[in-house]
Amino acid sequence: METRGYPVEQRKGEINPNAKLTNEEARRMRERRKNEKLSYSDLARIFMVSQVTVSFVIRGLSYRDAGGPLNATPGEHYRSRT
């Protein structure tokens, strides 16, 4: 499916019609994770998304342009493949 010349899967962040969050919600999620030390599970319940979505947002794999603090230590979330 294409929309305005871009395949839907390539439209990033809140402009994707399948987006679960707005950029503002993604930014607030990152801030709450940093300031309140909430778990992924807690954030998933608050924002009504999956823990995988929370992980992607916090690590900056999705909603990159939303702003807010990114987790700069990916080793905290998965093991190194060495």
Description of the structure:
By secondary structure, the chain is mainly α. It has a domain at 21-70. Helix content is 38%, strand content 5%. The chain contains three helices and two strands. It has helices at residues 23-36, 40-47, 51-59, and strands at residues 2-3, 6-7. Strands 1-2 form a two-stranded antiparallel sheet. The longest helix has 14 residues, at 23-36. It is globular. The N and C termini lie far apart (38 Å). The model is unreliable at 77-82 (pLDDT under 50).
Radius of gyration: 14 Å
The number of helical segments is 3
How does the overall form come out from the CA principal axes?
globular
Mean pLDDT: 81
What is the β-strand count?
2
What gap, in angstroms, lies between the N and C termini?
38 Å
Order of helices and strands: EEHHH
Low-confidence parts: 77-82
Strand order of the largest sheet: 1-2
SS class: mainly alpha
Q: Main β-sheet, in a few words?
A: 2 strands, antiparallel
Strand share of the residues?
Answer: under 5%
Give the proportion of residues in helices.
25-40%
Labels describing this entry:
mainly alpha, 2 strands, 82 residues, 3 helices
Element layout with pairings:
Elements: E1 2-3, E2 6-7, H1 23-36, H2 40-47, H3 51-59
Antiparallel strand pairs: 1-2
How would you summarize what this structure contains?
It is built from three helices and two strands, in the order ββααα.
